[in-house]
Write a structure and sequence with these properties.
The chain is α+β, with helices and mostly antiparallel strands and 91 residues long. The protein is 21% helix and 23% strand. The protein has a domain at 44-91. The relative contact order is 0.10.
Amino acid sequence: MDHWVLYDNSGGEPVLIDWSGKAMSKKGDVEESQPVYGAPPQPSGADLKGSLAALRRAANRARQVAQQTGTDLIVMRDGQLIRISPAEQQP
């Protein structure tokens, strides 16, 4: 990060509290792990029952909306993000 700004958002309007043009951290000081994607876990509790089916319904609806609006669909295949144009989408 090359600069920062701190606001108080507790009121109706944000109020500037402090700022700095100095970096908060040096390059290489911050390490963020990349998310690991794989097979979805099998539902094990009552609260998860039906969640996989809900995710599948949401994915199908996203495909429908992308087709209707001519929007690219972004999917993950083999750990890679893939952009699928409306022409490539299956009807």
